[in-house]
DNA-binding protein, excisionase family (Nostocoides jenkinsii Ben 74), 166 residues
Amino acid sequence: MPTALESQTYLPADSVDLDPIEALLADESSDAFALVGPGGRVPIPAEVHKLLLQVVQAMHSGHSITVSPQTQRLTTQQAAELLGISRPTLIKLIERGEIPCQRNSSRRTIQLKDVMDYRKQRRERQLAAIAATSVDLDDDDLDTIELRALMKEARRANALRRSAGS
């Protein structure tokens, strides 16, 4: 059995029927879930319930699950890996004030919550940018020249946004 703070990946079992478990966890009419065992009944906090539901849904879809415990304070390298960016890029984000950090002598540490908040905000900005550059291609009034002009403008806006961020 793995130790408590070790990363572990779990594969979905083909022989286990997850339908009833998923149905029970997904039942929104009940807000009180509990574990029941020989020692009695223990209520499950909302965060643990959401985690269990996500795990069961993923495994039911045939995905494996990796549980990787994280500390609340991350090094810049750990935060960069979590965001999928390089450490120098993370340092630039910190210096621009986009991600807060704490300094301990010559080292920086970042709160896990701040990294997760930044990741969520970045995803929202990406989705907004995609929506802003979307064009209805079924629009009969839009000809090829107009479409090219719109695409050129979108590329220009993206390049300006990137250069402003560097």
Observations:
- The beta strands are 8-10, 34-37, 40-43, 65-67, 73-75, 102-104, 107-111.
- Helices lie at 19-26, 46-60, 76-83, 87-95, 112-132, 144-165.
- The mean pLDDT is 84.
